Amino acid sequence: MKKQNLYILFFIFILLIFSIYLFNFAYDPADQDFVILIKEMAVKNQNNPNLFLEVYNNATTEEEKVKAVLTNKFYQCVSNYSDQIKTKTDVNLYCGNYIKF
Fold first, then answer.
1. Diameter of the chain measured on Cα atoms
2. Measured at the alpha carbon of residue 83, what is the angle toward residues 72 and 38, in degrees to the nearest 5?
3. Which of 11, 38, 69, 70 is surrounded by the most beta carbons within 10 Å?
């Protein structure tokens, strides 16, 4: 009986630690600021399509051109999934194939 109670207490303790970890991970204020910034940049990119063309045309190397294209696709992805994206993990989940954070 004591052994079973000990197991139950241990399980509750682990569950409590896991819950605290998830709460802190999901509600990090810096994470929220980052997501707001990324969403604002995506809106700016969507509202001004010439912005991408300017960056792309001013790129001097192929690497800079690829970076401009990937950044544009990333912002389009963030704009498309704006309602679902709440944390940095969501940004990586939905749009991480373009840019990882």
1. 74
2. 40
3. 38
DSSP 8-state code for residue 1:
-
Specify the residue for token string 């999901």: 26
Cβ proximity of 90 and 38 under 8 Å: no
pLDDT per residue over 4-15, tens digit each?
A: 888 888 889 898
CA 25 from centre of chain: 12
Look up the pTM and report it: 0.70
For 71-86, what is each residue's pLDDT tens digit? Answer: 999 999 999 999 999 8
User: Cα–Cα distance between 42 and 64 in angstroms, integer?
Assistant: 19
At 15, the amino acid letter reads L
